[in-house]
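Example 3.2
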Amino acid sequence: MIEPTLTLERRLLKEHALIIACDEVGRGALAGPVAVGAAVIDPSRSRKRVPAGLRDSKLVPEARRPDVAARAAAFVQHSAVGWASSEEIDEIGIIRALGLAAVRAIADLRAHGVIPEDALVILDGNHDYITPAGESGLRVKPIIKADRDCASAAAASVIAKVARDSVMVGLHDELPAYGWARNKGYASLDHREAIGLHGMSVHHRRSWAIAPAPTLF
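Structure, written as tokens:
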């Protein structure tokens, strides 16, 4: 298994004061918000040892994610999670919603003293959805598989994943029929069967072609 390193961050920090790594969670879910994690690495932290077990959140066993996320948050200079709701996803589309969530995460960092304009933003993937969302003053560098290869992006990934999973468990308590504590809003068989039986809830992304079922509550 490939382990993320700080090799790229160290190289980029020769030209930039900070690295802000961003990664999204929940893009492909049928229900619930989308979240974008943001993690800040400065030169001093780029020389530290990467926390044991830090990986892209999809590669960390669920039972271990909270511990890994806590160590990741302690490792980076600052971290934040930005959100866009299912209603916003329906209204503006998933790509613009990702940008909105990223802008909110970066605004949270700014509120804690980070100056995003001093940073290079590493964005996992091949598409810059941040600049069109209104952060035109930032330098954004999309990197394919950044969450696999770059420790800063892996930290953002697992921090966002644990935060979103917690939200979905809370929504499960509100509407247990959909099994969100297990499927976290993704398209599992039990989730689709529940939609067929109960219709879509207010937390489902109604603009998506989920199921030919009415909205009951």
